[in-house]
Amino acid sequence: MKKTGILLLWLTSVACSSKSVKDNPILVEANQIHLEAEAIQEQIEPAIERIDSLKSLLLAKKTPRADSLGNHFTKLKADFEDWKKNFFDVPGFEHTHDNTHHHHDHAVAPELPADKMLEVQKEIKANIVRIKTELNMALEKEQKVLK
User: Which residues contact residue 22 at a Cβ distance below 8 angstroms, ignoring those fewer than 6 apart?
Assistant: First the structure.
C-alpha cells in the first residue's frame, strides 16, 4: 500500500510538472523561437548540402575572387555544422521529425531556468539568421562569379 501511495504521488508530480512547463509563457516563447530557428534551418539546409559542388565549380574558375568565395562557403558550412551541434529543443516541448524532410537531430538541452532558456534560444536563432544572410549573399556572388 505504501508503494502504491509513493507511485501515485510520483505520477501526480510528473503530470503536474510537465503541464506547468507548457503553461510557462517564457518557455512557450522560447519554444516559438526554437521553431522559427528550425524553419530557417530547413530552408537553408539544401543550399548547405550543395556547398561542396559549388566549391568545385568555383575552384575550376581559378581566380582569386572564386577562391575567396569558395573559402567563405567552407566557413559557412562549418558555422552551420557548429550551429546544429548547439541546437536543442526547449525541455517539455520536444518533438519528432518525419523522414520526408531533411534529417536533423537536436543536442541534449541543458537544464536552465526559463529566462536563460529564452535567452539561449534567441541567440541560437540569431546565429542561424546570420548564417542564412551570409549564405544568401554568398550565393548571389557565386552566380556572378560563375557567369
Answer: 28, 92, 93
